[in-house]
Amino acid sequence: MSGYEGRAAYLRETLKEISPIQALQMVMDEDAILLDVRDADELKDGTPTAAKHLARGQLELKVHQLIDDKTRPIAVMCAGGLRSLFAAESLKNLGYEKVYSVRGGYKNWKESALEIKIPQQLNSAAKERYARHLLVPEVGEAGQLRLMKSRVLLIGVGGLGSPAALYLAAAGVGTLGIVDADVVESSNLQRQIIHGEDQLGELKVNSAAASIKRLNSMVKVEVHPHFLDETNALDILKNYDLVLDGSDNFKTRYLINDACVKLGIRNVHAAVYRFEGYVTSFGGAADAPCYRCIYPELPPPEMAPSCAEAGVLGVLPGIIGVLQAVEAIKLLLNIGSNLVGKMLRFDALNNDVSLLEIDKAPGCLCGHHADEIVIKPIDAYMCGI
Ligand SMILES: [Zn+2]
């Protein structure tokens, strides 16, 4: 008998081995953790539905993140019941009091006809492509799969939408919808970097779709070559998890806001003016403010000029649009702190970055029931409800 086998025989005598059925019973009756310690590539064949996964190689390093109560029972499972003995011994040494090894491991679990799930996994091309995401603990394989299942709608592929669309595509967001009825003009190219000289005169949605496909053919692009109005807003928006508002006029921003509030969709909103830009998020919580909480009334035209009227530094929407993409990814992955109830303002001329608080306004439309919110004709979108 080798040293390894001898050690395993000793552990079998000194540690408690339980059957898969006993393990499942402990999960149900004693709130035990069933811990699958096989490597990630061993899970292709499935894992018990009730199991948590933590590979043997990571066990000592990360088990405290998964199980902080050292009196909670743990049933350790591997492929055949050997590695789990050594893992159980390690857990005992770490101070976990009630540790058991599942006899016969996953092989025995399957033969016992107990419930399993087949975890979704990235294929090898996606693993290679998103390798830098997989190294980030807040993203990882589960986060990447989540991004790949996500549907984001960009309203406008202009100064803000161009960088946002490219980075969301590069990040692997599965479906990008694009709403824009304009065609590419020469004066757009100073900032709208998703379009090129060879696309002048093309519909922006088509030009953007071609650029996205060139960057990441795994991304599905849905084009909506329309001006957003009361006849199409709800039908288009309802099919997405999240909206990025990169529109350049107040009527459309109110319309997007009202449609998102009515549909309960998160809205990552941004705007730019010369050297300044801001980004904020609406929706996602009962106390979240909306666009109308900030601007209940349409500002007079001289107070709110568009880029076409006031001009903008070409780089500025690049920065703000990328901040929108960062916010969108964080919201999709539910990580970090978001910009709900906050406005991030960037002043490029004076190197000033500030975070302002936004309160929900009493009586605002966002406090109303969805059925009470009426999507008005676009030209009526000025102020009030
Ligand atoms: Zn509001």
Structural notes for this entry:
The protein has 385 residues and is α/β, with parallel strands linked by helices. It folds into two domains: 3-117, Oxidized Rhodanese, domain 1, CATH 3.40.250; 150-380, 3-Layer(aba) Sandwich (Rossmann fold). The chain has 15 helices and 15 strands. The chain has helices at residues 3-14, 20-30, 59-66, 83-93, 105-111, 124-129, 131-134, 140-149, 161-171, 204-215, 233-237, 250-263, 291-294, 307-310, 315-333, and strands at 16-18, 33-36, 47-48, 51-53, 74-77, 99-102, 116-117, 151-155, 175-179, 220-224, 242-245, 266-273, 276-282, 342-347, 352-357. The strands form three sheets. It has an eight-stranded mixed beta sheet, with helices on both faces. A five-stranded parallel beta sheet has the order 1-6-5-2-4. Helix 10 links the parallel strand 9 and strand 10. The longest helix has 19 residues, at 315-333. The radius of gyration is 27 Å and the shape is elongated. The model has no long low-confidence stretch (mean pLDDT 93). The structure holds zinc ion (ZN). Zinc ion is lined by residues 289-290, 292-293, 361, 364-366.
Which terms summarize this structure?
15 helices, 8-stranded mixed β-sheet, 385 residues, binds zinc ion, Rossmann fold, elongated, alpha/beta, 5-stranded parallel β-sheet, Oxidized Rhodanese, domain 1, 2 domains
Topology:
Layout: H1 3-14, E1 16-18, H2 20-30, E2 33-36, E3 47-48, E4 51-53, H3 59-66, E5 74-77, H4 83-93, E6 99-102, H5 105-111, E7 116-117, H6 124-129, H7 131-134, H8 140-149, E8 151-155, H9 161-171, E9 175-179, H10 204-215, E10 220-224, H11 233-237, E11 242-245, H12 250-263, E12 266-273, E13 276-282, H13 291-294, H14 307-310, H15 315-333, E14 342-347, E15 352-357
Parallel strand pairs: 1-6, 2-4, 2-5, 5-6, 8-9, 8-11, 9-10, 11-12
Antiparallel strand pairs: 3-7, 12-13, 13-14, 14-15
